[in-house]
Amino acid sequence: MAMSNKLERRHFLKGLGGSALFLPHLDAMASTNATKSVDLSVPKRMVCIGNNFGFVPQLFFPEKTGDQYDLPDLLKPLQNHKPDFTIFSHLDHGINGQGGHAGIHAYLTGILSKNSKGFKERNISVDQKAAEMTQSKTRFSSLQFSSSLSKNNKLSWSNAGVALPTITNLNQIFDLLFQKSSPAKKRTAERELNSQSSILDLVKTDADRLTKQVGKSDREKLDRYFSSIRSVEKQLDQTRLWIDHPKPTVDYQLPKEAANLNFSKRVPLYYDLIALALQTDSTRVITFGTADIGSDGGGLGVTRGYHQLTHHGKVPGYIAELSIIESFLVKKFAGFLDQLSSIEEPNGKTLLDNTITLFGSGMGNASSHSNKRLPLILAGGGFRHGRHLSFENQNNRPPASNLFLSMLQQFGMETDQFGQSTGTLAGMESV
For tag attachment on the chain, is the N or C end more exposed, with fewer CB atoms within 10 Å? Predict the structure, then answer.
């Protein structure tokens, strides 16, 4: 006999001001005809985490391949999630000798900015390609965070070949996601949006006139400029669409001193906000860059700068301190997977099951400025995991962009090409 006070998920969702904060499935929601009134479908998400300085190869990659491999000490914090991720070795973008530190900017694109001219979508990054599918479905089509103020943390790129800015301030991120706006602030925001739209109209008029007066080379530059304008227009339209939608309410509070905390205390807070942004469906695509730990050693007890340590020259003392930083990054990533796997979604799966989560770098060996053999881990997202996949002995070794194409298809995009991909990556199976 059905309970008279049966709870329905839609009632919960109404109480959240229209936000899609998915609650765990409760017994009180159960009914023989529950699926008739409740939509159990959930969206796919994508999170791409990048470390500018890579990881020491001999510490990162397992010795064995397949599903019978042992995690090296550096990756031991991930042990509980071993069935939830795949480690890839001998994948890269084929730019060794051209990239160096610039290779970190090609991490999610597979194409150096300077080499992108001949590509239809230039050096668009995989996160921004995925964001094309979300558009107005969420308040933010994508979000870009960074733990560093450094301008060298360029992970996300538009289809115009423009690096997208990152947000570093934790309080700003929280306010952007969850701070309620008064009616007066909303009206002010609307006026600002209208003003920006007017400015864009004037800029487009001037650019149109210039196009008729310049040569081929300059027209190409203007085409890129127009692409940037269209991107801004889309952002303005999306902001206008969501301006009257209330932001979600969350039971979470940042420490008052969040912005002034050292690196080791700030990184977990970024992960907290990323998980909340996904859970509330504020966005479905996020990048997060972990870079400079700061001059104080980031609270990790290291005595030298992070960049200096990456150029270790195989000096044991340098590698020992570098491993402290790398271990910290792996531990916090493991904690993030803990968070995602603890959040149940309406379809009975976890947020991790529904989130394609990439962890890695565009730098293979920072000590030698190598962009070969990138450290890459893919977790969640509905793929079959629990393996170390190596492509060392293949005659036609696939580019890392094949992995990105597999990610995009799993995200739901109907495409057979991304960057310099030659197909999807062998061994990437859905479950």
Answer: N
DSSP H stretches of helix in 38-182: 57-60, 126-134, 170-178
Q: Which residue has the tokens 């400015």?
A: 199
Where in the chain are the domains? 11-151+261-411, 181-245
Mean pLDDT for the stretch of residues 97-123: 91
Which residues lie closer than 8 Å to 247 by C-beta, 6 or more apart? 17, 19, 139, 177, 178, 179, 180, 181, 282
pTM for the model stands at: 0.83
DSSP strands (E only) in 253-351: 285-290
pLDDT of residue 67: 97
**Residue for token pair 């996300």:** 156
Q: Cβ of 175: how many Cβ atoms within 10 Å? A: 14
Residue with tokens 């060298």: 152
What would the CATH number be for the domain defined by 11-151+261-411? 3.40.720
> Which burial class, exposed, middle or buried, applies to 84 when counting CB atoms under 10 A from its CB (0-12, 13-18, 19+)?
buried
The candidate with the shortest Cα–Cα distance to 158, out of 63, 261, 227, is 227
pLDDT band at 200, cuts 50/70/90?
Answer: low
Chain-centroid distance of CA 316 in Å reads: 33
